[in-house]
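Continuing the series of single-chain predictions for the mutant panel. This is the parent chain; the variants come on the following pages.
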Amino acid sequence: MAEEEVTRAPSTIPQFVWRIVEIIIGGVFIYAGAIKALDPIRFANDIDNYKILPWMIGVRLAFYLPWLEIFCGLALIARRLYLGGLSILTALVFIFVIATVSAKIRGLDISCGCFGHVSKNWTLPAHLALDFGLLIFLLLLLRRVRGQGGANLPRKVDV
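Parent structure:
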């Protein structure tokens, strides 16, 4: 019995558009990670405001998470360890959205601080809109990569 070949419709979105999305998302996480890495104690306080984790775990995360965001953002831009960086960033944004909604339901008045002073005066809907936008694009990138069994994973280009 001959195996049937599954054919997929070609993507309607050009490759360069996906590349721009990768660069923008990578840049957003590099910027956000750098802002938090410059002031980890402030970030630890931001984590503590969610009242989900003990203080000492929040402090450890405040020193670790910014660098994870930076390295994952670089992975998207440099196309090295791409799937790992993309998967980690997707999980981080998903967890952050859940934590934010949980804090709001519990009546906590939180300010994210994810983008430093730039986002200090943003409303909760503005934060959630950005987070959901990032999550949607991250999921689209994951779907694109995994949808064809890794066929869309960025390849090394010899110069």
